[in-house]
Amino acid sequence: MKRSREKIVKWLLIGITVIFLLFMLVLPMVEVIYRALKDGLETYKTALTAKNTLSALRVTLIATVIALTVNTILGIIMAWQVTKFDFKGKNILSTLIDIPFSISPVIAGLAFIMTFGRSGWAKPVIDGINNALGTDIVLVFSVPAVVLATIFVTFPFISREIIPILHAQGRTEEEAAALMGASGMTIFRKVTFPHIKWGLVYGMILCTARAFGEFGAVYAVSKARGKTFTLPLEVDALYMSGTADSITQAFAVSSLLVGMAVIVLILKNIVEYRGKSKKSV
Amino acid sequence: MYVEMKGICKKFGNYEAAKNISFDIEKGKLVALLGPSGSGKTTILRILAGLETQDEGDVIIEGKVINDIPASKRGIGFVFQNYALFRYMTVYDNIAFGLKVQKMSKEKVHERVMEMISLIGLCGLEKRYPDQLSGGQRQRVAFARAIAPNPQLLLLDEPFAAIDAKVRKELRSWLKEMIRKVGITSIFVTHDQEEAVEVADDIIIINEGNLEQMGTPSEIYKHPETPFVANFIGTSIVLSDLSGFKGFEEIEKGKKVIVRPEFVEAFKSDNKKFHDLIPAAEEGVIEKIEFRGSYLEVTLKVGDVRLVTNRSLERRSISVGEKMYVLLHRIYVFDEGTAQRYKNSLLKDVDIELM
Ligand SMILES: Nc1ncnc2c1ncn2[C@@H]1O[C@H](COP(=O)(O)OP(=O)(O)OP(=O)(O)O)[C@@H](O)[C@H]1O
Ligand SMILES: [Mg+2]
User: Fold this and answer.
1) Which of the ligands is closest to the CA of residue B34?
2) pLDDT for A281 beyond 50
3) What percent of chain B has pLDDT over 70?
4) pLDDT of residue A35 exceeding 60
5) Radius of gyration of chain B from its Cα atoms, rounded to whole angstroms
6) Average pLDDT over residues A244-263
7) Could you report the per-residue pLDDT of B123-160, keeping only the tens digit for each?
8) In terms of C-beta density within 10 A (0-12 exposed, 13-18 middle, 19 or more buried), how is residue A277 classed?
């Protein structure tokens, strides 16, 4: 009697989950692909090779690659700092790292404009640097702005992934290595890195996924379609122009993002699997 | 003089973990740092190794002040309480690590690692990872890893803490023998007095960040210099009133008195050996008898006072409620922080060491 009740509950819960995922995630995804291909492959191809789409793809890739590189390096340094050393203000620092998680991306973007924009306080500093170096860096409504916004929203992913691992591992292995005369770099490569390797890759994947898809922060600092738009912005622009053609194109471009997401998901699963099986060695 | 600490003080926030610690250790000695949990033993070891910086005082090795030399340049071997083996390296690589850091040639590294592995008796296990080893095996690897680079000084932080009682005993004598064989000055931390007494040449007793006493095990046992040491070493009973006990009439009431089982002798009234001592003995009743493996722990009630003595299993059998003569031949009395030994005044002419 009791057993069958348990069974019913179990299947009920599974059912709810499946139905939820189906309606909220799978069907919309399928819908995107379906809509993208509705008018035939030819239209699909045209949409993907449109000048604006290619530009958006380029900006997205640039932003993602740079954000990933910067955040990987910074993430490792910050996580190492917070876990392996004692210093004043350590708690404040580790709280600061989380800010991008708790702040709305749009606000982050707007804050950038307030800081670096025409009336922002940092504007003279940037101008000064540009004058001195003969460069022409603009930090709002430009590709560098998009890159910065992307870095901002994605930067906690990697450090947040490694900090718990480093915490759990403690410091004694590093201390043991240091006592044997190893340099900081050797200690990191030989002792610390093997611990964080899979966590790091996992964090990098999450960071990449988020960088591809970021909308809010980028939206605030990017206004020139065909120049500084990223894929999500391009999708939005196409959709908003409201003609039947442009809506189909919007879905075509969306399908690119869906494709990237699927690849990332697969990678993520492989890494999770490897990370787990590695532990049992 | 090989290792010396001079006036070492260390605070964590407001907490004084080491208060003016000074000691010196001769070359080749095996010294135990003994004290209750939280007394500052690990802190002292870490300051010596350079993993922690003292607020005041000097660490001196071979006559040189090494306060400013970082841990990595001190050439000290350290065995951590939890071993801290490199989890992602094999036994071989763990032991080889310190040698490779010294840029030793590959053949030399191999030779030394294999020498170490056979020294610790783990031949054939060099390809294993730490979590494929038993606690005792890990302990040995940690030891081999620490001594492979030929450190001048070896520090061990509770090297046996994570090992069960039986293996612990084996490893203890193993380690003592190894350290003798390698001939390296060593300091090991423990909170187990039996371990300290059994293994060490000298014992340093630490309590609440203070160095209470340093000396050989028998010195510390026979001449405790502070109430803490007298109480901490051996099993002791603390009494506050011995007035009325034969032979101790001169002890003032209210003074803190410590009695060890070895200071108490209980015998039956028809015992020939102790017959002459009956005038110096009190009458008591056996209250409790506990079997302790190789002896009996007997609790006797004498007046209002409870005393404990150990009784050999070779002697005649006794039972609870039985009347016995109880002879107290020695006590420690504490007065203003110093410990004094008192002998039963009625035994003045008897050599109690011979009993
Ligand atoms: N990094 C630290 N920050 C703050 N307090 C500390 C720190 N390290 C040690 N202490 C404190 O200093 C005191 C001595 O610590 P220590 O680790 O030296 O004790 P111990 O004698 O090794 O004890 P145990 O036998 O339990 O290992 C303890 O009260 C401990 O709480
Ligand atoms: Mg300790």
Assistant:
1) 1
2) no
3) 97
4) yes
5) 25
6) 88
7) 999 999 999 998 889 988 999 999 999 898 999 998 88
8) exposed
Chain A: nearest CA to B178, how far in angstroms?
20
Q: What is the CATH number of domain B3-226?
A: 3.40.50.300
- Pairwise CB contact (< 8 Å): B71 & A175: yes
> What ipTM describes this predicted complex?
0.77
B193 lines ligand 1 (CB under 6 A): no
Split at pLDDT 50, 70, 90, the class of A16 is very high
Q: What is the pLDDT of residue A2?
A: 67
Is B69 at the interface with chain A, CB within 8 A?
A: no
Establish if A104 touches chain B: CB-CB under 8 angstroms.
no
Please report the atom of ligand 1 found closest to the CA of residue B81. 27
Domains B3-226 and B235-354 alike in fold: no
The mean per-residue pLDDT over the stretch A164-168 comes to 89
Chain-chain contact of A179 with B49 (C-beta, under 8 angstroms): yes
CATH number belonging to the domain at A40-280, selected among 1.10.3720.10, 3.30.420.40, 1.10.10.10, 3.30.1370.110:
1.10.3720.10
CA terminus-to-terminus distance, chain B = 39
The string of pLDDT tens digits covering residues B17-59 is: 999 999 999 988 999 999 999 999 999 999 999 999 999 999 9
Domain boundaries, chain B: 3-226, 235-354
B57-76: average pLDDT: 92
How many CA atoms are closer than 13 Å to the CA of B329, on its beta-carbon side? 20
For ligand 1, pick from B39, B79, B190 the residue to mutate: most ligand atoms within 8 Å of CB. B39
- Average pLDDT of chain B, as a whole number: 88
Residues 6+ apart with CB under 8 A from A1: none
Q: How far apart are CA B333 and CA A226, in angstroms?
A: 93
CA of B154 to the centre of ligand 2 (A): 16
User: Which CATH number is correct for B235-354, 2.40.50.140, 3.40.50.2300, 1.10.2020.10, 3.40.50.150?
Assistant: 2.40.50.140
Residues of chain B neighbouring A182 (CB-CB closer than 8 A): 72, 97, 101
- Whether the per-residue pLDDT at B113 is higher than 50: the answer is yes
Alpha-carbon span A157 to A160, nearest angstrom? 5
Report pLDDT for B281: 86
Contact between B146 and B78 under an 8 Å Cβ cutoff? The reply is: yes
Instruction: Identify the residue among B53, B79, B86, B139 best suited for mutation to test binding to A, counting A beta carbons within 10 A and taking the highest.
Output: B86
CA–CA min distance A177, chain B (Å): 7
The reply to whether residue B71 touches residue A179, judged by beta carbons under 8 angstroms, is: yes
